[in-house]
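Pipeline run #58 for the internal structure catalog. This entry was flagged by the ingest filter as a single-chain record with no existing model, so it goes straight to prediction. Upstream metadata was stripped on purpose; only the residue string is passed forward. Reviewer on rotation: M.T. Logging verbosity set to normal.
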Amino acid sequence: MAKILIVDDHPLVRAGFSQLIGDTTDLTVCGEAGDMATALKLLDSVKPDLAIIDLSLAGGSGMDLIEHIKARDSKVLMLVASMHDEALYAERVLTAGARGYINKQETQGKIIPAIRQVLDGKVYMSEYMTEKILNDMVSGSDEKRGIKSLSNRELQVFEMIGQGIAPGKMAMQLNLSIKTIETYQAHIKKKLGLTSAHKLTHRAIRWVLEQ
């Protein structure tokens, strides 16, 4: 049986995934984690074949976890299950090292096929996401192209700005200095063509609400 590690900061989501996997005959849950530190410890102790990872985690982001696992040259396959915009984040997680992306709104009926597809060595993407990525490549708006130009860390800071998180708290959560946060904010403003902190905040809030 293939061993699955569930990494999500919501206990109910972990319980739901665990139940769905428990109903199969070829998959088994070997561990659960709600934060990045626990996930990294379990990777060493339970040695899963695949990890289901949410992008929003306590004590770090799912993107950070994916990059850590990739840097270890680990054989663990990774499937992201998240509520974030597919067309924006799916490309990023695939580039970072994950082998699939599924929107949580679709997980009830598709998480098991997605797991099996990734275990078979294939990449999982929804038809909707594939079509959206292609449409964005052909006719994406200037604003969406601007958001896509942000680095993973810049996008994380941009999202936190939109959530109303103060720079000091951002620095603590990301284990960075306030000066580094301010540098990221300056880079974001430049890439998005914004001329003030107020406009940056307004754009970030609007973007978070759209998500």
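catalog note: The longest strand covers residues 27-33.
catalog note: The mean pLDDT is 88.
status: ready for reviewer M.T.
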